[in-house]
Amino acid sequence: MSPPALKPDPVRADALPGTSRHRRRPLASTTHDDDEELLMSGCLGCSCERAAENESGGDRVLLATRVRHNQRAVRDALADLPGVSEPGPGLIEVRGHDPAWVIRTARAALTSVEADEVRALIPAPHRTDLIAQALTASSLTQLAARAEHADLLPLFEDEETAFHAVYQPIVSLTGDSPLPPAGPGPADVVGYEALLRATGPNGPIMPDQLFGAAADAGWLHVLDRVGRTSALRGAAGWLGDATLFVNFLPTTIYRPEVCLATTERAARQAGIDLGQVVFEVTESERVTDLDHLSRVFDYYRQQGCRVALDDLGAGYSSLNMLVRLRPDVVKLDKEIVGRLPDPSSRAVVAAVVEIAASYGGTVLAECIETREQALSARELGVTLGQGWYFGRPQDRRERQDDGTPHRARPTGVASPREALTRSGDDPAVRVPAPRSGSDREVRA
Ligand SMILES: [Ca+2]
């Protein structure tokens, strides 16, 4: 592999995430009260300060590895550069160069697996806790991603401007009313799922791009917290008694009572009763520690919230999670819903409905795009639906600005609390046993 060109990069050191330009509160200068305040606001892991773990301002880079050929590859890439030394086994020190460029050069010399293994640190000159900084250093992969996506960091400086939630309606599939027609204006809206959107200086940022960058750079903790607070803040004033579904990544919650403090405060400020909120676990297939997730669920329930498992699929792990965690709401994976009324898909839905019914859980079919899918889901005992067939995510800010009133829930439709009741004994929303047969009962 030929070493990358050694020309210093025009990107300045202070463009690296976590540098003073981006920090609102330097960690080194926080007082005890500041620390308390940070903890109360949801812990370092949930706030922008987490991005400051490689805070800089200096021009020194330390790279550490336990793999000999990683060290060799990085050293070769930086071979002709003055200021490069190897002060110890597995350690490379670079002084006097733009850290962002050094990080990128080292990253380019390694495979992705190698770069994951290498720890990288840009020690902050004004900090004296080098050992702590070193022990909590990020991987070279993460630090390189932070340099690459540094343009996203200003978004976190003014979260309320840069981020907002859009809200996709969730409808009741039960009751005597016919299934709503496609398009806006479904009759039986009982709730909304909040989805995070971001706007940068050049316009909207695609969600995939935003979450992909956050995952690479280790900012998911921050983004997840922003997603929860934006969801609650944006629902103030119009939610009424509808249920609000808020996504969260359980791996970003270190300790629920601390990490979820900002979320609880956002709900209070928005005037939203926590009893109206369903927290749904995204990417549930990636959850490996069910005990931890169970503790998070317990905490949410103690606060009066309900919990949901998102993207529940056909795999053993999914059904195992369902049995272990008994979520109040089970959201069926879009692949399964998309294949309805295919017999194999019907069998999976029927199994999930049966398990959920055994403990009083509610099943929701996401990503419904056709009437046929909606009818099939309803016939199988799914009581809630969501998807473009019923309505796309809506930017409620526009609705508020132009004064359009939020359409009231029609009479005869179960209230959200009834529709999502844990006991499930409201006849309008009872989760029936799976059955086969015609769809007469649900025809318009
Ligand atoms: Ca979701």
Automatic annotation (TrEMBL):
Signal sequence segment: none
Regions of compositional bias (Basic and acidic residues) in chain numbering: 393-405, 419-428
InterPro entries: Cyclic-di-GMP_PDE-like (IPR050706), EAL_dom (IPR001633), EAL_sf (IPR035919)
Residue ranges, annotated region (Disordered): 1-34, 391-444
A Pfam short name: EAL
Highest taxon, organism lineage: Bacteria
SMART domains linked to this entry: EAL
The EAL domain, residue ranges: 145-407
Protein name: EAL domain-containing protein
Native source species: Spongisporangium articulatum
Biological classification of the source: Bacteria, Bacillati, Actinomycetota, Actinomycetes, Kineosporiales
